[in-house]
Amino acid sequence: MKRRIAAPSSTLLNLSAGLIFVVIAVIAVVLVNRTMRQQALVEAQSKARVLFDRHMATHTYYSEILKPNPFESTEPLGADEASDPSWMSSFYAIRKVDQYFQEFSQTQYYVKDAAINARRPENEADAYERAFLEEIRANPQLKARSTVRNIEGQPYLAVLRPGLVMEESCLRCHGDPADAPDGLVDYYGAERGFHREGDLGSVVLATSIRVPLADAYGQANRSSLQLSGLLLLLAVLFAAQFWLHRRLVFAPLDTIRAKALQISTKPEHLGEEIPVPLGQDLANLADTFNRMSVKLRQDRDQLEKVVKERTRELQEAREQLIRWEKLAVLGQLAGGVGHELRNPLGIISNAVYFLKLVLPDAGVKTTEYLGIIENETRNAEKIVADLLDFSRSKSADREPVAAAELARRVLERYPAPAAVTVSVQAGADLPRAYADPRQMAQVLGNLVVNACQAMPQGGRLTISATRRGKEMSIAVADTGVGIAPENMARLFEPLFTTKPKGIGLGLAVSKSLVEANGGRIEVQSAPGVGSTFTLYLPLHQEGK
Amino acid sequence: MSSRLRILIVDDDRNMTHTLADILALKGHETAEAASGPEAIEQARARTFDLVLSDIRMPGMNGVELHRELRRVQPGLPLVLMTAYAAKELIRQGLEEGVIDAVDKPLDIQRLLDFLDRLAESRTITVVDDDPAFCQTLSDMLERSGFRVATITDPYADVEQVVDEAQFILLDIKSDHIGGEDALRRIRARYPDLRGLLVTGYRQEMSTAMRSALELGAYPCLYKPLGIPELLLTLAQVRLEQLRSAIKTG
User: Model pTM?
Assistant: First the structure.
C-alpha cells in the first residue's frame, strides 16, 4: 500500500480497514484452529473411552470367565502348578490383540497396562505413568488423567485410568516366586512381577491409552491454512480494488489537484494540461480541466495584451498631455511677450517710417541704416506674429476655399525670389475645401517662405492641388536642401528650428492651424533632393 | 478741396501717438493726440474730426467704450481700433457697434495711408435738389460734419456730372416732377453697383412714385423735412459698409 502522494484521510481509512481485516482474519483462523483441535480432543477422548471400555471388557472376560473355569476344572487334577499365559493372563491377551490390531490397522492407537515392576518389560510404567500410579496410591479418589503429550514429536491424547487393585488372589502369581505356578517362572523368569505383597489393596495398574492427534491437528491446520488462503485472497482482492481505485480515481484527482495547486501558486503554469486518464468520468473531468486551463491562459494572455496596449495608450496620452501643457505655458508666455513687444516695435517702425519721409535726401549710409532698422523691425514683427499666432486660440471661421485662389493670394503676399521658378497646378474644376481662408493662407505662406529659404541657390517651387477622396490635398514642393532624417520627427515641435534665424514656431503653428480646420499636414523629404509639405483639408459639402 | 483729413489719435503710449501724428502730418493730414478716452472726448467736443485712430486697451476707458461715447458727441465719426493684444471679444463687440475696422500693431503705415485716401473720397457728397435753398442749408450742415458737398439743382444734369467722384448722392424725388425719378433710373442703369445713393422727398407726395423707385433697388429713403441726426446716421451706416468692403477688397 505504498502511496506517492499522501491523501491523509483516505490513507488512514484504508490502513485502519486493512488492520481490522487482518485482526479479524487472524482471530478467525486461530478460533477455527482451536475449535477444530478441541473437537479432535473430544473425539480422541471418546475414542479413548471406547478403547478403555473395550480393554476393561477383555480384562473382565479373563478374570471372570476364562481364568476361574480352568482352575476349578483342573483343581481336582492337582494341576495347580500348571500355568499358561495364553489363557491365564488377560494382559497377555490384550497385548497380543493389540499387537494384531496394530498390524491390521494403520492407526497409532496405543493401549498399555502400565505397572511398576511389571512382569513384562513392555508393561513397565514410564515416568509419566509411574507418576500417575504413585499419585493414585496416595490419593485413591483420582479417577483419570488426560493430557496432550508430545511423544517423539507427535501429539497424542494421553489418558490414564486406574486399573486393578492388588488382591490376595493376585499374590499367587505375584508373591513369592516359589509359590508361583511353575510355568510362570519358566515363562517369565523369577525376577519381575514378584514380591508384591506390599501392594495389597492398592491400585497397581494404570491403563494408559494414547490417541494420536497428529491427523486431527493436521486437519485443523489444513483447514486453518485454507481459511487463511481464502482470507488472503480476499485481502489481495481488496488491495487490488484499492489499487485500481487509486490508479483510476485518486491518482487522476491527485494530478488535477496538484496541477490546480501549481497553477494557483505559479501563474506561468496556467495553460498546461494534464494527461487524460482511462475512466470516462475522470477523462471528462480532466478534459474540462484542460480546456479551462487553456482558456484561462488565453484569456489571461489576451488581458495582458489589452492591459499592455491600454498602458501604452495611456502613456502616450499622458505624454501628449504634458506636451500640450508645455505648449499652453509656452503659449501664454509667448502671447504675453509678443503683446508687450508689439507696442515698442510699432513705435520703432513708425519712427523709421517718419525718418525715411523727412530724410529723402539723406546720405547713402543713413539710408542704408534706416533700411537695416526697418528690416530688423520687420523680422522682429514676424517673430512676434508667430508667437501670437502660436498662443492665439485657433478657432477657425471656415468657409468654402478654392485652392487656386488661395495659392494666388499667398504667392502675391510672399513672392518667391527671382532665382526660384514657381508653378501652380490647380485645376479650376477642383472642388473647394472647407477651411478658414486667412489661416490657410498663413499656413501656405509659411510653407512657401520655408521652401524659398531651402533653395538659396534657386530651384523650383510647385504648389499643386488635387482631390483625394473626401479630402483636398495642397502640396508645396521645393527642390531645396531637404530635411535630415533625424529632424523629421521633431519638425512640427514648437521651438524646433534648423535655421540660424527664427524661433521655430512656423511649422508648429501651421500644424495646429490645419488641425483646427479638421485637416492634417504631412511631409516627405530627401536630403539634397527637396521637400514636399502636403495639407489635407476636408472638402466643402455642397448644399450645406 | 484737398484730401486733408482731421485725425484724432488716441493711445496711452505718447510715443505711439507722437510718431503716428508726425507721419500723418507729413502726409498732409491735420492731427490731434489724446492719451486717454476722456481726453479724446474732450477734444472731439471742441472740434470736428474726420477719423479717430484709437488703441483698444487703455486705462480707464477702452477703445470700444470711447467709440460709444464719441457717437454721442459726433454722430457718424469713423473710428478705427488699433490693437496689440488678442482682444477678440472686444473687437467683435466694437465691430457690431459700428467701428470700421481693427488693425494690428505695429501698423502697416502704407495700408493706413491707402485707407485714409479712401476715407477722404468717401467724404464727398452730391445733393441733387431743385430747391436751391434746401441745397444751401443742407450743404452747410453736411460740411460742418466733415463732408465735401456739391449741389446740383438741375435734375436733367448729366449723369456723369452728378456721380462725378462723389461717394454719396442725395436725390430728391417729387411726384409732380418726373425728373428725379428719371435721374434715378439713368444713374442706376449707368452705375448698377453704386451704393451711396439716398432718396429724399415728401412723404405725402411720393407714395406712388416711391414705390416704383424702390422697385428699382433698395436704396435708403429719407423724408422731408430731413432730420439731420437721422441723415448723418444713415450716411454713417452706408459709409461704414463702403469702407469695410473697401478694406476687404484692399
Answer: 0.50
